[in-house]
User: What shape does this take?
Amino acid sequence: MYRHSRAWLLLSLLWIATVHTQLITQTSVDLNAGKIKSAVFKSPAFTLGHGQVQDKFYYGIDFPKGHIALKGFDAEVVDENGNSIPLSETYLHHWVVDRFYHKTSLTEEQTKPITKRLHSSDFILAGNDGICQPHALGQYFGLGSETRHTNTFIPDPYGIVVGDPNKIPEGYEESWLLNVHAIDTRGVVDSLGCTECKCKLYNVTEDQYHRPLRENYIGGLHCCYDETQCQLKEGVQGQKRTLYLKYTVHWMDWEESIVPVRVYILDVTDTGERSVDQSSSYSPIGCQVEYNVPQCTAGIHSSGEGIDIREAHMVIPQGGDVIYSVAHQHTGGDGITLYGQDGREICTSLPRYGKGREPGNETGYIVGMSSCYPEPGSVQIHGGETLKLQSKYNKERGHTGVMGLFYLLIADPIHSSALYSHQPEQGSSPHVSRFLPAGLLIVFALIAGLGFVYFIKKGKEDDYENLMA
Ligand SMILES: *[C@@H]1O[C@H](CO)[C@@H](O)[C@H](O)[C@H]1NC(C)=O
Ligand SMILES: *[C@@H]1O[C@H](CO)[C@@H](O)[C@H](O)[C@H]1NC(C)=O
Assistant: This one.
């Protein structure tokens, strides 16, 4: 679909072969590896100069077609030669992949990179299973800085089933959109501040829709939108460079033996409210996506004091077996735990911080999140159960625009009676190795790549969608 994909296709073929082999050897939980297909694509090019931000939407991206089950999704930022770019140069705030239906073939105009989400009556966002307010956090895949070392592979016999001709509305086609938000931090005065979208570093007083910033809004996505500029050190000048998001999709053709998973995204900022208050232009309802962590000013005397704990309760409409889960946090994150109504721990997902310089190991950045793979049937959530989500951040320094998101994949029990009596086995720990090398892994991601709130203007100033694209 994109012009440059040809050379990549060639590269991809090589890569696919490698991935296949590695997949089979790396992923022992996978009984069906031979049927898994993979393809590597790259996004349209984007250019970044020192301190610049790109936050674009690409509609109608290359994506596997037909009735399929998605098994994983990886991504990373690369340059024109395919070299991995470290987060210390280009911070990947997030990439997010959404599904949508559209009436007619997308025009060339519609597939051009745009700063804001496309809106048209011919266009229906086909979101995940919830549970935020409509249009918020509806993506299927999405990660940020942690993308290189986050395992999001969906084990057999499960998959995210898409492209089902019976589910696509009559007269519509299914397509995918990609949103990439990247911040170039070369030469900036405050690298963490730029990645945390501190408003004063961006010298902005209005958000991307030319609305004045909310009072006391000191940092977050409304200050680091497309084509903003973070403050540079005196005298810094540098060349722009061309970058891409390289993404790899792993899938299987649909067959009866595949068990579909439901994709839920939980947000620790969720207020639980679901109706839009029309009188408030900012409608602080439901999932806020971002929050701030105040600095601990009193000094830290004992363990635990330097940790900010944020909690939210939410109800899962339709329960089942937990198949996979993973959290998404930003720098400073200290893990997220999901608890059941009875207090049982469902999953704890912990960040891994880089310790070096090379891509995938950048000091101070979250370069991976651990994911949970309970033996199917061993961890269940009941429909209507109230869960507690707890997100921890280190507050030795304050943070703006952080996130506490949690991706939860749930499936209907396969053979209820058999599974309920089935205990996790000895060696096959429910937790697949926490941090497998990213290149080897299939990341199906869903994460929230750091950040993704999109307030989309729908005609009226006060009618926004809070999208984590
Ligand atoms: C900040 O923005 C104002 C206008 O919005 C502009 O006049 C000023 O030069 C900017 N400052 C910097 C350092 O870019
Ligand atoms: C990250 O870099 C540090 C410092 O160079 C090194 O000791 C460590 O082994 C690296 N980690 C990985 C996973 O490569």
Observations:
- The pocket of 2-acetamido-2-deoxy-beta-D-glucopyranose (ligand 2) is lined by residues 355-356, 361 (CB under 6 Å).
- The two ends are 22 Å apart (CA to CA).
- Confidence is low (pLDDT under 50) at residues 1-31, 417-469.
- Helices lie at 5-26, 191-195, 199-202, 416-420.
